[in-house]
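step=encode ok
step=design start
structure_in=
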């Protein structure tokens, strides 16, 4: 049977067509992958942008909580020391604006003869201990400036109140603006001085 030129062209066209469809399918698959990747990247960027503002806002709270955690560790150390030495130890805020404090020692919390053992400071210039007066303005009750632990009687604040008692740390800018939602408080309850971070 003779082969005509038109038959060859038909065969070539069919081969080219199938190659064209293969290339088209490959290109279409690449385009779909590019679209999926682009959408995924935009979603990640949108999530990052939305979380940045929240993170910046919460950063102040995290930093004040960090100072409060260190203070809680210091108070726990004093409790342990009091139990071992059978002496009373008092922590007193010395300079609220510089986060500095003093540690005193005596035979009991009611003593008039406390001797200074150490002067310490938390290194964070953007934060301060909130004073009871400033706490009152914010309608926060029970903020104190000193803590004494006597192993025979427990904690003593010289603070008569029906409220929970504790120390507060706040960002200087927040204090100036009267913004207390990022204030961190170390709440101390009961004679055994159970501590809670808030």
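sequence_out=
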């Amino acid at each position: 049977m003779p082969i005509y030129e038109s038959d060859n062209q038909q065969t070539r066209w069919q081969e080219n067509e199938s190659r064209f469809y293969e290339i088209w399918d490959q290109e279409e698959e690449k385009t779909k992958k590019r679209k999926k990747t682009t959408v995924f990247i935009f979603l990640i960027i949108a999530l990052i942008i939305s979380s940045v503002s929240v993170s910046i806002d919460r950063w102040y709270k995290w930093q004040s909580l960090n100072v409060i955690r260190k203070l809680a560790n210091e108070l726990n150390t004093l409790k342990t020391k009091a139990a071992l030495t059978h002496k009373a130890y008092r922590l007193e805020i010395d300079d609220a604006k510089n986060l500095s404090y003093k540690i005193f020692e005596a035979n009991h919390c009611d003593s008039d003869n406390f001797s200074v053992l150490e002067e310490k400071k938390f290194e964070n210039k953007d934060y301060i201990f909130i004073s009871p007066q400033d706490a009152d303005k914010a309608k926060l009750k029970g903020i104190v400036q000193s803590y004494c632990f006597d192993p025979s009687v427990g904690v003593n604040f010289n603070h008569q109140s029906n409220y929970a008692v504790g120390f507060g740390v706040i960002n200087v800018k927040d204090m100036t603006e009267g913004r207390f939602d990022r204030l961190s408080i170390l709440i101390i309850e009961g004679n055994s001085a159970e501590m809670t971070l808030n």
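step=design ok
step=annotate ok -> Residues 60-197 form a domain with the minor pseudopilin epsh fold fold (CATH 3.55.40.10).
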